[in-house]
């Protein structure tokens, strides 16, 4: 299957996960940074899911699945180990809703890639289900290549870009936007000297 890669903004939209086991737990973990309205439908849940529920960041419908459970959902995960339940979730899903079945049977509108997050830097990896082991391997390699320092680094780049666009025009603007990728800036960030990045920018902007 040729998937179309994209990043979805599901902030404050409803995401329903049918199932309370390990697979459902992984789906919830992937959703947490998105600020979606996360609802788990299952008679039982894992210990970690209970922690999220007790923290109030996940809602739990402690029951067996019913079609009405997905009425307001934007995205739906059928994450049980029972095909008949996953079939029921698929049957209840409307054409405008996005469905992912963990058993890869029937309708699968999207799959979850492996993700490396460094603040606003989001790197995704997928083999389209061909080799989950390779996906994990590549994820580990990317995580090592792009360490935690990329979170403040990308945050600075975003702030700097706004200032450049608001201050400069024409060739000066293009030149400074290109210079923002000066390796020295990343090095300062790695060393925890982000103030040097801001000082450099102020000097280049002439303010």
TrEMBL record:
Residue ranges of the TM segments: none
Annotated GO biological process: siroheme biosynthetic process
Taxonomy, superkingdom: Bacteria
The organism of origin for this protein: Ureibacillus massiliensis 4400831 = CIP 108448 = CCUG 49529
Protein name: precorrin-2 dehydrogenase
Keywords for the protein's UniProt record, in alphabetical order: NAD, Oxidoreductase, Porphyrin biosynthesis
EC number(s) per entry: 1.3.1.76
Coiled-coil stretches: none
Reaction(s) this enzyme catalyzes, per UniProt: precorrin-2 + NAD(+) = sirohydrochlorin + NADH + 2 H(+)
GO molecular function: ferrochelatase activity; precorrin-2 dehydrogenase activity
